[in-house]
Design goal:
Length: 587
Amino acid sequence: MRKFMQKPLVALNKHLGLWKEAIHHASLLEMARQRVFAAGIIMCVSFVTIAGRLVDVMAIRTSKRNNVVTNTDINPMPRADIYDRNGNILATHLVTASLYANPKVVLNPIDAATKLSALFPDIGYQTILKRLSSGKGFTWLIRHIPPRLQQAVNELGIPGVYLQKDYKRVHPYGALPSHALGYCGIDNEGLSGIEKFFNKELTTSDQPLRLSLDIRVQHIVRDVLINAITEFNAVGANAMVMDIKTGELLAMVSLPDFDPNKISNLRETKAIFNRNTLGVYEPGSIFKIVNSTIALDSGTATPYTLYDASAPYKLGRFKISDFKGQNRELTVTEAFVYSSNIASIKMALQFGIKTQRSYFKRLGVMQPTHLEIPEVSSPLIPSIWKEPTLITASYGYGISITPLQTLSIVGTIINDGIAIQPTLLYKSDEERAQLIQTNAQTKRVISSKTSHMVREMLRLVATHGGSRKANVDGYEVMGKTGTVYQKEGRGYNKNMRTTSFVGAFPLSDPQYIVMVMLDDPKANKETYHYAAAGWNAAPTGGRLIEKIAPILGIHPIQEKTPIRYVHSLDGHPSANDPIIMKTSHTQ
């Protein structure tokens, strides 16, 4: 029985063993299948991750980078050109290329920086390496590189380093019109002058901008000022030439100046300061033009009204005297020609504070003069206007205005009393005619009679007074000088002066007005050791007029000196001379 039972048990065990072995093999097979499946999933995930990374780097980030370059760093179109009044190009653009990188794609920043720094030693290895190692999706490396270096960069074939089409603003005349034009930054955004004022128009339109500047006149003015700085050892100088009828500025020069094509560290220099529009200065004796105009136009005086200038005027503890005074009674005309402070004070005291302030507002003394550049300063006017201000303002102290304001104010007085608005924009013949007609109807500030009287007095200053060195035969020059001590702390430095000259021509039909200013000119043997404006600013203005008048189409004529006011200007008045005839306005 036992034997009989053992055989089935052996068979059963054998079958159980085979079954267990089958189960074991099935388990191993299932495990293998699971591992293969898991490995497949891992491989798929890895593939998707790598693919996503490639898409991110090559597509998405590149797209974002390109958007940054197109919309922010590079204008969609180049800036429009700028011309002078005669069609000469003052500002244009060059098509260039700029080098940028995607540091996320650069495989070996150290190797790339080494190769690039060999081509661009001015940028330097460390700077380039820092940019390539920034981890950003985009960074500029070098802007506006020349064609030969563009080719060299391409030949390097560095992954992640690319060239981008770019535009570079260029000013063909360099420093010559720099303060009027201004300059642009590395991204072609206007940062000063016309470039900044019209930045939107220049970047959104391809229509060129035409200015009133005449580059020929600009060149002459700059040369004359450079020579004056050398001759009189001045710190700096500035000058303007303006069309009296339209206010168009044909020249505006401020020295020292700058080259707008070289903008690195430009903001750290004083050369970008525009003395014509940003500088505010006490105008000195030039303001006697305004003072005499007020006296004549308000009716408180005539050209023959006498004022006693025989003794200094006392203002508190101060005594105000005349430079080379005549020490006698002076008519308004004589006081103007001899530039008498004493007579000017007495004129102002006669017409008073209210009248003075009223004319100052009408003539544009109290507010900044508009011009199409952002660098325009406001005048410095006392907040309290009492008798001391009335007195000092009469001879050009106590208030400070820009040379542009002075030019505009005097131009208005000479322009038949019709206010003019300075501009840097060109006026066509049609626009010019319309502007002159409109101004004559709407912008009269003083009477035509007053304007003619002041013009004749200004002519006498150029023939008999302190502006004689500005007189140019044949051009009927009118002019007035001003000399002021420069401020230092709360007082004045008697060894430092600002000298100026404002002049117009011709007397018979005034067309152009010029202003010249010298910063701290020095006396020399040729000036007989004088440093006043009559010895430096006046001759500088005369040289300027002599050179630009023929270019501007002003032909010399046979001059006739006004005889109504000149009889007593030799310093020896006659009792029967009408110029010293006493009137009811005698002071």
